[in-house]
Each structure stands twice: as C-alpha cells, then as structure tokens.
Specification:
This protein is α/β, with parallel strands linked by helices. It is built from 13 helices and 23 strands. The protein has three domains: 201 residues, FAD/NAD(P)-binding domain; 109 residues, FAD/NAD(P)-binding domain (3-Layer(bba) Sandwich), CATH 3.50.50.60; 112 residues, FAD/NAD-linked reductase, C-terminal dimerisation domain (Enolase-like, domain 1), CATH 3.30.390. Belongs to the class-I pyridine nucleotide-disulfide oxidoreductase family.
C-alpha cells in the first residue's frame, strides 16, 4: 500500500517537532498535526513563560536587597500588564520558530486535530491521511480535583492569561508546578497559601531537599498547610472560600489547582487503532517507544515516564535517527538532571538518599550555609543545601542534590559528572572556584551519616 506519509506525528510539542524535523532531514515524508499551539506546553504555558515570571520575581528581590550593598533605589511597584506583554511576545516568537523549523525541513503541517480511524489512517481536520508509521506526542493536560466548586478554581495554564495579580491566592498541590507558581505569585506580591495532603511537598525528591524547601517557602512569608485536602470551594461576596479537611477555611481571590497532569489521550481514537493505555490514560510503550501496534510510537508526557522537555526532545531525536537515519540508538532515562524553579531553586540528578540506600550502604555528605549575598542582604529563606550520596562499595556518586541560588545552572555540570560515573574521589581532587557556592560540591569532606546499613541484630540473624 502507498501511504501519504512515511511518518505522521500527532502533536506539535517538543517531542513531536524534534522527531518530525530530524526524520524529514533524513529524507522521510513527514506530516505533523497540532490543534492548539506549536511548541506545546513548554513554550506556551510551561517552561518558557514560567521562567520569565520567575525572572521577574528575582529582579524585585534584587532591587529590595540593593540597599544593603549601598544602592539607593526607589521601587514603585510591579506592572503586571507590562510583564505579561513582554512574556507573551517572547512566547509568540518561540512558537513561530517551531513552525519555521518544520517548514524549513519540508514537513507538512496541519493546524488541526488528528484522530485515528484505523491503525494507519487519521482524520486530520477535514481530510483523511494515511501513514506507514505514526507518532503520538500529544503531551499532558492539567487536572482539577473532583470537589464541589472545582469549576471556580484555575488550572496552571490560566496563570498566563490573568489580567492582574490576585492579592490572595490558594495553591493546591505539592509538586514542582505548585511550588513554582506559589513562589512566582508570592514574589510578585500576593499573599499565598499552599495546601497539600502529604507531610512534605515534592514527593519523589530527596527528603533533605523536601525539608529545606519548606523552610525556604516559610521564610518568604507563605502559609503552608500540610496534611490537608480542600473539600469545597464556594463564592462569597466576590471572593472564594476554600474549605479544608481539617475544618479550617481560607479566603482567596484566586485558587490554583496544581494537582498533576494527565496524559492527553482522550478523543484520539486509540481504540480504533488498537493502541493500549494504562489506568491513568498513558500510552503503554516498550523500551523502543513502540505501542501495542508495532508501527505506532509514543513519546513525551503522553507516556508519563520522565515528563521533562529535554527528555522529550532527546527521545524524539533518537527515534528519528533509529527509524530513518540508519543509526539506531536510545536516549537513556537514567540520571536525568532536573530543576525546580522555586525561590531559591532546586537542582538534582541521580538517586535520592532513600533510593540509593535501598540498593546498599551509602555515605551521605551534606552542607548548609547562608550564601555570601544574603549574609549582607539579610534576606530570609535563602539558606543553601548541598548533598552528595555516595556508594560505599564503589565510591561512585549516585546522587547530587541542591537547594540554593543558581542550583539549576550548577547541577547541569554536576549532571555530566554523575552521568559519566564520577567517584567521590574525583570530586575531592577537583579544585573549587572561589568564592562560589558551587565549590562546596568539591570540598565536602566530612561524612554526615551512613545509610542503607542493616542493624547489627538483623545482620546476625541472617
């Protein structure tokens, strides 16, 4: 059978665009359909606009701290509309670049929704197309909790369409999106409550980081509400009232649901194509990103594995090289560096202490200090934490974790070392750059504790 395309990609985000562009560069006939906006979540309602808003909060704090360093500045307040205009202009520019990249590589683009009719046929807007191979890269979508009045709350996308800063905000959730949004809103002047049902935020991160970020958020004047869940949202006299499971109430001008994202698979016609999903709606794939149909692949947030933009682009590039470039390869999901752009930010790579200890004995090195900048400024909630988790048997650094200024920038370099299998001895014989915070990673000499070792009584019993 002659197909219209060698590869058709559903979704114009990071994974889909990279795979489409590289595949076309290898000579494949490629089509891409995107129903909302080119560049996906990251460019339009995620990484890019969020980081611009994080930058805005930093400028405000630097202006406030300047007096401690001898500067006499007058700060008249923040102009939300001016920030929004600059942010939206940059988002539009980057989104446009995605379309130009595809066109420049000969990819056929469709501003339309694509839906499977069968395993090789798609309804794309008003037309039908066929493809030998198909890639599902439709990303994820934010979710609200199923509680009375949930429709009164906002989702994460809505931050980027607000016309003004709400004065009082309740952020529901304890993941990285929730904490980043809380820091942005607080940094721009809002009163912020954060509600989450666990004892600590950031499930899955190292426990020392989770504890330290609580201190940092409280130091900024946020009110944290752990071990509770919202039970109802009501509107009273133009304001919102959030009822909590501990029988307390919070009044707010806006409520953000940052309670996770679900794979965006609804309405794609996956049943007609014979593509399996799991209980959460994520597309099930094997190590080669093949679905239950051998010619249909899935990448990015829609498979709910490591939901990071660089991971999506890496896997998209690898899949294109494998299918059409005559150089089969895989992008590894191991030791992926990542950051949380709280204030201060978090950077992490490799295993947490708990994960590493579950595999065997480890040595743990930890330091906490106030950065030089804030010994002068006196700003609260800015203590830095750095941590290395080291295998006792091999001396290999299994994990590195940091909360503090420039953590994301520092962790990119540390990530290379961990990915290459560096040992603690390699870190120790590296000369530090002084005076910096980063030098602490190569001057950690005193072991804080040992983890993953069985009690003597248990060892004797075995």
């Amino acid at each position: 059978m002659a197909y219209d395309f060698d590869l058709f990609v559903i979704g114009g985000g990071s994974a889909g665009v990279r795979c489409a562009r590289i595949s076309a560069g290898h000579g494949a006939r490629v089509g891409v359909a995107e129903e909302r906006f080119w560049g996906g979540t990251c460019v339009n309602v995620g990484c890019v606009p969020k980081k611009i808003m994080v930058n805005a909060t930093e400028y405000g704090q630097w202006a406030e701290d300047a007096a401690a360093f001898g500067w006499d500045l007058e700060v008249k307040g923040h102009d939300w509309a001016r920030l929004a205009e600059a942010r939206n202009r940059e988002v539009a520019r980057l989104s446009g670049i995605y379309g130009k990249l595809l066109a420049g590589n000969g990819v056929t683009t469709f501003d339309a929704r694509a839906k499977f009719l069968d395993a090789h046929t798609l309804q794309v807007g008003e037309q039908r197309v066929t493809a030998e191979r198909i890639l599902i890269a439709t990303g994820g979508t934010p979710q609200r909790l199923e509680i009375p009045g949930a429709e009164l709350g906002l989702i994460s996308d809505d931050l980027f369409t607000l016309k003004a800063l709400p004065k009082r905000v309740v952020v529901i959730g304890a993941g990285y999106i929730a904490l980043e949004f809380a820091c942005i809103l607080r940094g721009l002047g809002a009163e912020v409550d954060v509600m989450y049902r666990a004892a600590l935020p950031l499930r899955g991160f190292d426990d020392d980081i989770r504890t330290a970020v609580v201190e940092a958020l409280q130091g900024q004047g946020m009110r944290l509400n752990p071990d509770v869940s919202p039970t109802r949202i009501t509107q009273v006299n133009g304001h919102l009232m959030v009822a909590m499971s501990n029988n307390f109430m919070r009044e707010a001008d806006a409520v953000f649901f940052c309670t996770g994202r679900s794979p965006n698979t609804a309405g794609l016609g996956l049943e007609e194509a014979g593509v399996e999903t799991n209980a959460s709606g994520a597309v099930v794939v094997d190590e080669d990103h093949r679905t239950s149909q051998a010619h249909i692949y899935a990448l990015g947030d829609v498979i709910d594995r490591v939901n990071l933009t660089p991971m999506a682009t890496a896997t998209g590039h690898a899949l294109a090289d494998t299918l059409f470039g005559n150089k089969p390869r895989k992008a590894s999901y191991d030791d992926v560096p990542t950051a949380v752009f709280t204030n201060p930010p978090i950077g992490t790579v490799g295993l947490s202490e708990a994960e590493a200890a579950a595999r065997g004995p480890v040595d743990v090195y930890v330091t906490r200090f106030t950065p030089m900048r804030h010994t002068i400024s006196g700003r609260q909630g800015r203590r830095t934490l750095m941590k290395l988790v080291v295998c006792q048997k091999t001396d290999k650094v299994l994990g590195a974790h940091m909360l503090g200024e420039d953590a994301a920038e520092i962790m990119q370099g540390i990530g290379i070392a961990v990915r290459m299998g560096a040992t603690k001895a390699d870190f120790d014989r590296t000369i530090g750059i002084h005076p910096t915070a980063a030098e602490e990673f190569v001057t950690l000499r005193t072991r804080a504790r040992e983890a993953g070792v069985q009690p003597p009584s248990q060892q004797a019993a075995e």
